[in-house]
């Protein structure tokens, strides 16, 4: 009842203020999303505006192919007209097979007919335009694939970044609980005269030092979650649950194979190759204006001053013809266009070579990042258990009076730092794999490791 009252009151207020109804709509109930990585990528694809725009560009390119194909077909037009003439030429028509008015006109002149026009040869320009239209479609498709790869990479970055933030939050919270528990133990020992005041103050300061780290970890979770929701076009009040865990599967690094596949599948490389093909055809298009142009036409129709007696042999008329235009001198226009197109072609070849070198650098960097992250993972993996054991021993020694308070505090911080280094290395390894997939140009690795996907 209270909710209905609130909705009515808000509606009345909007009417009084003259506020558009869209601004006065009651907020939707927050939604909950439980997402795997593939779920997140799918939602990002569905809601991304750039991808939606690019999908429309593909439709435009397909329409242009139809338009380019239509240039090969004859153009057929139905023509009809009525003209009233103030004066006409009067000629004798006795014995004529055709009404002379068909040639000289009528005072009330009615015409109706069909015309067919066809470009027989225009220097190969239509054929080049048709092939260019097909290449433009492939360019738009590769551009769509490039945008999807970028969105997928960004989704992975935020998805695994959120998992890393959760892990850092857990590590910081665990360290704070350990420090608080130890502080309570030291305070109890101090009340019994077993621990010194220095140990008590030292333990209390340790708790105070860790609390801001917990706040920072909490804020990092909220900040990355907000960016993640924005990328997926979710509402800020919606809640998001991540299904996966921050774990990694090692892959076999084969830089030579990665580089070979990148040259084949990378959208940017395919775009450069398609650009070379486009510029090559542009040379043909530019040179077409300097070649002969041949056109054919056919006209058939009726002309009479009486619509009721129009369609008969005395009023029909037809004509057919071929026109040839041979350029003699065009003030070097065609030659200039050809030279420009050739320069563009050479330029596109050089740009392709530059991109090839850039891809090689990216593949090298991705492989180096994998090696670096894996070395940290392997070094930290065993150290975690050893750090836990060292903390346990330090606690036992302190409680038995053989160790110092500083040993316990150092062991706590050391364990936290090693766990953090391990989590960050796992994140770096996952993102190095994602970077390699983006550099290669397709989804390349399975969740379990290095099996290649089609």
Q: How would you briefly describe this protein structure?
A:
This protein is α+β, with helices and mostly antiparallel strands and 454 residues long. It has helices spanning 2-17, 21-24, 37-47, 49-70, 101-104, 125-191, 197-231, 255-265, 267-288, 333-399, 405-440, and strands at residues 32-35, 75-84, 108-121, 239-242, 293-304, 316-325.
Walk me through the structure.
This protein is an alpha+beta fold and 454 residues long. It has a domain of 277 residues: Up-down Bundle (Outer membrane efflux proteins (OEP)), CATH 1.20.1600. It is built from 11 helices and 6 strands. The chain has a 4-stranded antiparallel beta sheet with strand order 2-3-5-6, with no helix packed on it. Strands 1-4 form a two-stranded parallel sheet. Helix 4 packs antiparallel against helix 6. The longest helix has 67 residues. The chain is elongated and about 140 Å long. The N terminus and C terminus are likely disordered.
Q: Key features?
A:
454 residues, alpha+beta, Outer membrane efflux proteins (OEP), 4-stranded antiparallel β-sheet, two-stranded parallel sheet, 11 helices
Uncertain stretches of 5 or more adjacent residues: 1-8, 11-17, 19-26, 450-454
- First and last CA, distance: 57 Å
Shape: elongated
Q: Indicate the CATH topology of the domain at 138-291 and 332-454.
A: Outer membrane efflux proteins (OEP)
Briefly, what CATH class of the domain at 138-291 and 332-454? Mainly Alpha
Structural class: alpha+beta
Helix fraction, binned, reads 55-70%
Number of strands: 6
- CATH-level-2 architecture of the domain at 138-291 and 332-454: Up-down Bundle
* Share of residues in strands: 5-15%
Number of helices: 11
Calculate the mean pLDDT score and round it. 87
Which strand order do you get reading across the main beta sheet? 2-3-5-6
The ordered string of helix (H) and strand (E) elements is HHEHHEHEHHEHHEEHH
Largest sheet: 4 strands, antiparallel
The CATH superfamily title of the domain at 138-291 and 332-454: Outer membrane efflux proteins (OEP)
Radius of gyration: 39 Å
């Amino acid at each position: 009842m209270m909710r209905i009252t609130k909705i009515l009151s808000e509606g009345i207020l909007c009417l009084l203020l003259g506020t558009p109804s869209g601004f006065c709509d009651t907020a939707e109930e927050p939604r909950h999303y439980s997402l795997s990585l593939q779920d997140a990528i799918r939602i990002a694809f569905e809601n991304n505006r750039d991808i939606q725009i690019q999908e429309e560009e593909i439709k435009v390119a397909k329409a242009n192919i139809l338009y380019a194909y239509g240039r090969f077909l004859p153009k057929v037009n139905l023509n009809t007209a009525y003209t009233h003439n103030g004066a006409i030429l009067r000629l004798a028509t006795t014995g004529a097979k055709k009404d002379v008015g068909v040639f000289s006109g009528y005072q009330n002149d009615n015409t109706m007919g069909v015309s067919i026009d066809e470009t027989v040869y225009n220097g190969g320009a239509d054929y080049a335009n048709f092939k260019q239209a097909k290449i433009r479609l492939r360019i738009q498709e590769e551009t769509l694939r490039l945008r999807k790869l970028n969105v997928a990479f960004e989704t992975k970055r935020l998805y695994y970044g959120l998992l890393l933030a959760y892990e850092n939050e857990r590590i910081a919270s665990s360290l704070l609980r350990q420090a608080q528990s130890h502080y309570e133990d030291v305070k109890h020992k101090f009340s019994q005269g077993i621990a010194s005041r220095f140990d008590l103050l030292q333990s209390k300061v340790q708790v105070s030092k860790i609390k801001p780290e917990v706040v920072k970890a909490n804020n990092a979770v909220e900040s990355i979650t907000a960016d993640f929701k924005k990328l997926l076009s979710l509402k800020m009040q919606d809640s998001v649950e991540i299904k996966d865990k921050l774990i990694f599967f090692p892959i076999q690094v084969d830089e030579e194979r990665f580089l070979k596949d990148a040259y084949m599948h990378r959208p940017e490389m395919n775009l450069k190759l398609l650009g070379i093909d486009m510029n090559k055809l542009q040379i043909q298009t530019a040179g077409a204006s300097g070649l002969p142009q041949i056109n054919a036409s056919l006209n058939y129709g009726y002309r009479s001053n009486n619509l009721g007696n129009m369609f008969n042999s005395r009023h029909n008329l037809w004509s057919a013809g071929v026109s040839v235009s041979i350029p003699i001198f065009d003030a070097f226009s065609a030659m200039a266009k050809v030279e420009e197109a050739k320069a563009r072609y050479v330029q596109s070849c050089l740009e392709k070579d530059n991109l090839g070198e850039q891809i090689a650098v990216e593949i090298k960097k991705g492989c180096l990042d994998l090696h670096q992250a894996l070395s940290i993972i392997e070094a930290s993996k065993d150290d975690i258990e050893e750090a836990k054991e060292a903390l346990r021993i330090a606690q036992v020694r302190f409680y038995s009076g053989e160790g110092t308070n500083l040993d316990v505090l150092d062991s706590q911080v050391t364990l936290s730092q090693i766990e953090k280094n391990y989590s960050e290395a796992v994140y770096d390894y996952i993102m190095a794999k994602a970077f390699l997939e983006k550099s290669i140009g397709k989804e390349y690795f399975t969740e379990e490791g290095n099996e290649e996907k089609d």
